[in-house]
Design brief:
Structural class: mainly beta
Strand order of the largest sheet: 12-13-15-14
Radius of gyration: 20 Å
Number of strands: 15
Distance between the termini: 10 Å
Number of helices: 1
Strand content: 25-35%
Number of domains: 2
Helix content: under 10%
């Protein structure tokens, strides 16, 4: 069965918002276009700006030395795709009263590059950090420490990523990030990250947002399944008692699936960046 046929029969499930792995979250406006199963981004929330989901918002940005002008008002909005702030500033995202919006902040001396550790100043939702222009500090911990991630370039219609082996995760109302591509069979992401379906392919997402669902576990989003599994239509999983259930990935070159299932290619043959990736489905 080709990807196109599986896509027609798969559930139309939105990607989950950033949340704990063991509870449902609000749906994110992102949906994978490259697979016939439910997918989950793993790091965008409902417009929380930085994607960490753990910071209180007092109604205005409280970062030190940049996001607020002398009158105490938020600075002008900007275009993160064009990075149209002043030469010593960058366009980033902040969250005020639960609503994400863009604004210009200063670029810190000796700014950090994508992939390097970073710090957000003041409120964790301020968007004011020590990353270079065109990057944002993401995956924050309780100390406002995170990792710089590149924002997508180009445009929402034709997004680009400077880094080789990265895919743009387009979001209309939150940061559009360039995520490292990966292989779900090899699980070749860095420590702390898992390879999940994302933006038409597979990308590294924080593994603390991945659930425990195994074969046949009911699901609505892929993030509810264990690493190495995806959430697919109940009709493709024998014995599934939900509208969708978790099923393991498999290699089409060396197919190994549970009894009564076969390894079906994840991608159409002419759209396969990872030609050996398959998903176990009922025969």
């Amino acid at each position: 069965m080709t990807w196109g046929l599986r896509a027609a029969s798969a559930l139309t499930l939105l990607l989950g918002a950033c949340s704990s792995a063991d509870e449902l979250a609000g749906a994110d406006p992102h949906e994978s276009a490259g697979s016939g199963v439910s997918t989950y981004n793993g790091d965008h929330s409902e417009g929380d700006g930085d994607g960490d989901g753990d910071g209180d918002d007092d109604g205005q940005s409280t970062s030190s030395g940049g996001p607020l002008d002398q009158a105490g008002e938020t600075e002008r909005t900007c275009d993160p795709w064009a990075q149209d702030c002043l030469a010593d500033e960058k366009c980033t995202w902040e969250t005020i009263d639960g609503v994400a919006q863009t604004h210009c902040v200063p670029v810190e001396p000796d700014p950090k590059l994508p992939g390097e550790p970073c710090t957000v100043f003041g409120d964790p939702n301020s968007g004011y950090d020590d990353c270079v222009a065109g990057a944002i500090c993401h995956h924050l911990d309780a100390q406002n420490q995170g990792m710089c991630m590149a924002l997508c370039g180009g445009s929402p219609v034709e997004p680009t990523c400077v880094e080789a082996g990265a895919v743009c995760q387009v979001c209309p109302d939150c940061p559009s990030l360039c995520l490292p591509l990966c292989d779900p069979l090899a699980q070749d992401c860095a420590d702390g990250f898992a390879c999940l379906p994302d933006s038409g392919s597979f990308a590294c997402n924080p593994d603390d947002q991945v659930g425990r669902g195994k074969l046949g576990s009911p699901c609505e989003y892929t993030f509810q399944c264990s690493v190495g599994y995806a959430c697919i239509d109940a009709l493709a999983v024998p014995g599934c008692e939900g509208v969708a259930c978790c099923s393991p990935f498999c290699s089409t070159s060396e197919p190994i699936c549970p009894e009564g299932m076969s390894c079906v290619p994840w991608f159409d043959a002419d759209q396969a960046p990872l030609p050996n990736v398959g998903i176990c489905q009922g025969v």
